[in-house]
């Protein structure tokens, strides 16, 4: 598997393979020794504690981008991977050419979801809603236009009153949108919501 990946990666411009690992311990060692900015992570590797491992990596190396490679095609797992901080999700049963597409997307700051599981994170808007490109790219869970707007404000420490003022809605409506957002993302506090938004790459300030 790793040899095949290296052959594919050798066709990508301005990309150098700085190392390979057979288990979680080796991943940590290589990241400490090398200035890698992208990790292709097989969730089935020995020592990898599922999605928690992704969150641990992103905490230790905030600039690291993580592209998951797995046989798991469960929709809940796809969403959990992104919630943990993954930047892309590829399936082992997918087309190998998707690897190159995923790397290209991640390089531009976008997320990538394998075609096989893209239905799990579909981003369809309602017929009268205009999509917002930035939020649509980063959000791995289906959100309304208004929820995407609010998600983009979260890292800035806004209150419901701030949201209401910026969007021209009532504070009560702003609170409701925020609650719906947390429910959809399975988050239980303002701190969790902020951490989620930051993990997805939304700028704080």
UniProtKB/TrEMBL annotation:
InterPro entries: CheY-like_superfamily (IPR011006), NreC/VraR/RcsB-like_REC (IPR058245), Sig_transdc_resp-reg_C-effctor (IPR016032), Sig_transdc_resp-reg_receiver (IPR001789), Tscrpt_reg_LuxR_C (IPR000792), WalR-like (IPR039420). Signal peptide: none annotated. Residues 136-201 form the HTH luxR-type domain. It comes from the Bacteria. GO terms for biological process: phosphorelay signal transduction system; regulation of DNA-templated transcription. Residues 1-107 form the Response regulatory domain. The modification 4-aspartylphosphate is found at residue 42. The keyword Acetylation does not apply. One of its GO terms (molecular function) is DNA binding. Keywords: DNA-binding, Phosphoprotein, Transcription, Transcription regulation. This is Response regulator transcription factor.
């Amino acid at each position: 598997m790793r040899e095949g990946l290296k052959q594919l990666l050798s066709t990508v411009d301005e990309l150098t393979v700085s190392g390979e690992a057979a288990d979680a311990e080796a991943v940590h060692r290589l990241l400490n020794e090398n200035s890698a900015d992208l990790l292709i992570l097989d969730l089935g590797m020995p020592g990898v504690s599922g999605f928690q491992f992704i969150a641990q990596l992103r905490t230790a190396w905030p600039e690291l981008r993580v592209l998951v490679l797995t046989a798991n095609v469960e929709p809940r797992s796809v969403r959990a991977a992104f919630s943990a901080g993954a930047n892309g999700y590829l399936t082992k049963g997918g087309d190998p050419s998707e690897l190159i597409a995923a790397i290209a997307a991640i390089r531009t700051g976008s997320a990538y979801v394998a075609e096989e599981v893209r239905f799990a994170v579909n981003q369809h808007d309602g017929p009268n809603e205009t999509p917002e490109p930035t939020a649509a790219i980063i959000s791995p869970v289906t959100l309304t236009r208004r929820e995407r707007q609010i998600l983009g404000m979260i890292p800035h420490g806004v209150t419901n009153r701030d949201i209401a003022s910026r969007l021209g809605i009532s504070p009560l409506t702003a609170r409701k949108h925020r609650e719906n957002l947390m429910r959809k993302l399975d988050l239980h506090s303002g701190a969790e919501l902020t951490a989620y938004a930051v993990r997805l790459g939304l700028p704080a300030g």
